[in-house]
Amino acid sequence: RKSCTRWTKHRKLQRSWNCRWTSILSRQSTHTQHTYTHTHFITLTQKNSKREREREMGFLSEGNTFGWSEASVSPIEFVKAHGVIQFINFYEASKNRKEDPFKWGDEVEYIVVKVNSEEKKTVLNLRGNDILHVLGEEERIKLKEKKERRESTSNGSSNKKMTLKTLWRPEYAKYMVEGTPGKPYGKRGLLDLISIEDSMKERRETVEKLLNEGEQILTMTNYPLLGATQHGSYTFPETNPGGEVARSYFTSDSIINSHFRFSTLTNNIMKRRGSKVNIQVPLYKDTNTDWNPLRFPTVDLYPFSPPSLPPHDPSHSSNSTSFEGKEGVIYMDSMAFGMGCCCLQTTFQLKNIDEARWMYDQFAVLSPIMV
Predict the structure, then answer these.
(1) How far is CA 286 from CA 211, 283, 290, 328, in A?
(2) Average pLDDT over residues 328-340
(3) For 167-181, what is each residue's pLDDT tens digit?
(4) Cα–Cα distances in Å, from 289 out to 292, 325, 327?
């Protein structure tokens, strides 16, 4: 699913590839480093060279973002053209590499919930950022020490590696926490396989120590009541559906991580499409299934237009004030129903490109079956 490779044999190419299929491009100017990051959106940041080297595994920790209207006019052609050039340069420099050590790792994403035992009810707890801030304190201290060592040396470099047992990263929603091992598996062979469960157990216990009374973490793909407002708010603190970013009938912008990359990604994908996300999943019917389609009023509650469905759909027009739900269909309208899911992910570094291609082909077949 993901490909993260650290190029260590080519010093000019020494960086981490973004795990989320992000193309990282750079253009050197006299005083600043301009880095354009392109997934489904454009991000622009200005950093000096030292701070640029402290990028966290491709995660843009500081900077500003372009809205879609700005990105589509200014840097997008540069990103497209130079993204291809950079890919070719990486490929040419690395295609003949052989016998790279086999390394691999995992990422576990947790859902934070608040439990009401008396009412036998759970809600999503939007406290993930607070938990991550505490979890990341050790890494921030290590980064600061590394920076000070580098600045104190004559050549501006530090050979001492920063070692942490666990790394913690933000994810799309405020109820999500992601934890990975501090370094990849692979050096100890089968012993690493034995240590995986201990590592996962330790990560879970580390998060649980920071939970308040009534809070729990879940390791499941999705929170079943995400978007379900029939029995009140499904979040704590309570949130109301809607907002200028996702413009959803079911989810609030308040659940999106406060880091600007996530809200920009959400809004720019919608603007690029010219409509909201339109997910329609066939509903499995049994004896207890309510087969009647839902109606979504928008006149008084939402200061924006309902989602644009394909032109051939007679149930909707661009001037309509309500979306007529389809019979036998589960309708979802925001990025949270995808990027708000949690999962176990694995990353592999193979010895050469041929082996990587072979393994990729195997996962392409196995992944849909396992999902």
Answers:
(1) 38, 10, 9, 11
(2) 88
(3) 999 999 999 999 999
(4) 9, 15, 12
Q: Tell me the C-alpha distance between 244 and 266, whole Å.
A: 10
Q: Mind listing the pLDDT tens digit for each residue in 292-309?
A: 666 554 433 333 444 443
pLDDT band at 156 (very low <50, low <70, confident <90, very high): low
368, containing H or E segment: helix 353-370
**CA 263 to centroid of chain Cα atoms:** 12
Q: Is the pLDDT assigned to residue 291 strictly greater than 80? A: no
Q: Which pLDDT score, from 0 to 100, does residue 238 have?
A: 95
CB 160 within 8 A of CB 98: no
* Cβ–Cβ < 8 Å for 325, 295: yes
Spatial separation of the C-alpha atoms in residues 132 and 36, rounded to whole Å: 26
Phi, psi of 363 (to 5 degrees): -65, -30
Residues 60, 50: Cα–Cα separation, whole Å: 14
> Is residue 253 exposed (0-12), middle (13-18) or buried (19+ Cβ within 10 Å)?
buried
Q: What is the pLDDT of residue 333?
A: 86
Q: How far apart are CA 125 and CA 175, in angstroms?
A: 5
pTM of the model: 0.73
Picking from 329, 292, 323, 281, the residue whose alpha carbon sits closest to that of residue 306 is: 323
Task: Phi first, then psi: give them for residue 43, nearest 5 degrees.
Answer: -120, 135
Nearest in space to 296 (alpha carbons), one of 233, 224, 236, 229: 229
**Long-range contacts of residues 305-313, Cβ cutoff 8 Å, at least 24 apart:** 307/275, 307/276, 307/277, 307/278, 307/333, 308/274, 308/275, 308/276, 308/278, 309/275, 309/278
pLDDT category at 324 given cuts 50, 70, 90 is low
Tracing tokens 């200028």 back to the chain, one arrives at 244
Residue 335: strand, helix, or coil: coil
For the cut 90, the answer to whether the pLDDT of residue 225 exceeds it is yes
